Amino acid sequence: MPTSLMLLSNPFRPDPRVLQEARALTGAGFAVRLVAWDRDSGTARRSSEHGIVVERLGPACPFRSPSMLLTRLPRFWSRALAAARDGRFDIVHSHDLDTLPVGMLIARLHGKRVLYDAHELYAKMIEKEVGPVVAGLVWRLERFLARRADGVVTVSEAMAKVLSEGRATPARIVTTSPDPSVAADADPKTIRAKYGMKGFTVSYLGSLEPGRFVEELAGAFAPGDGITVLFAGSGTLREKVEQAARERPNVRYLGTVDTDEALRITRASDAVVAMMDPSDPINRVGTPGKVINAMALGRPVIVTEGVDIAKRVAEAGCGLVVPYDAKAFAETVRRFSRDPGALAGMGQKGFEHYGKHLSWASSRDQLLDAYRALAGPTS
């Protein structure tokens, strides 16, 4: 079986999708070596995590700092090249565009194959920070490299359509759905007591960044509404969430939690918030992992009008679709918090939709099929 060299941007708290893909590959007999950029500390170290060999490389680089990224990303590439010099791998698995150029170079230097795993359209993600001219150049680079990768996987039909342009073989869709079995033995009452989830609890588990409805959610409800807002995650808005938790007794902040615990918290929540600013192009085509997590665990989800995932939620009947507006959001949640029967029905529909269309077993098979298509001639 081939060994894959996997590259990603911030493994200090591993991306749940990356971790789940690595677990699936090791479970199928692949030897996985995860070479990752530790942007948090920049400390180089090697460890074994979840049965996966993880090599963390520097340098440190703050997020949302384009100028520092331009100078420090090449230093990470240089260290990744050095880490790969033994050539003891068969496939280079590049997560997102910041690892794709060095992944392509490593693959070509060693006569290996490269799989591009796109979790977002990178140029659209950075456009607000770097401007349309730079974003346009980045987009041309992504299209150029994606066309030349030996395989491409991505998370949604919309992204697969874009990334398949100019390719002989189309991009495969690998949603990297959660494995709900890790939360099967969790007692919701115990989880709620552990984290102070009183009354009707809506949870937001993910990146604390602008455009994710974080600040709006933190101030959406008064203590007298009987609604608890629970946050877990990290990002540039962390201090504001911490402040809200100090000042408002109905706001809870848990810091960062691992992937399995996030699923347990999702199961114990009354509803899951996945609101994203629809004016951001990357938000419109993205598939937030927390939406699929909610479906997998039978919890209703709250999403924004105008984003692609809202169509799936509406068609499945598994949640609420509301405007990206704090007042409209709060009014909708208050109304449905008094109708547990409707919410339970939404959760059940989400669970059924997950089982038919988004199950982890299906996602795992999609990923392994992509690998086997590349590994066949080189095994």
Structure description:
The chain is α/β, with parallel strands linked by helices. The chain folds into two domains: 3-177 and 360-378, Glycogen Phosphorylase B (Rossmann fold), CATH 3.40.50.2000; 180-358, Rossmann fold, CATH 3.40.50. Helix content is 46%, strand content 18%. It has helices at residues 16-27, 66-83, 100-110, 122-130, 132-148, 157-163, 188-195, 214-218, 238-247, 259-268, 281-285, 289-296, 308-316, 326-337, 340-358, 360-375, and strands at 3-8, 31-37, 45-49, 52-57, 91-95, 113-118, 151-154, 172-173, 200-205, 227-232, 251-253, 271-273, 301-304, 319-322. The strands form two sheets. An eight-stranded mixed beta sheet has the order 3-4-2-1-5-6-7-8, with helices on both faces. Strands 11-10-9-12-13-14 form a six-stranded parallel beta sheet, sandwiched between helices.
What's a quick, concise take on this entry?
This protein is of the alpha/beta class and 379 residues long. It contains 16 helices and 14 strands. The chain folds into 2 domains: 3-177 and 360-378, 3-Layer(aba) Sandwich (Rossmann fold), CATH 3.40.50.2000; 180-358, Rossmann fold.
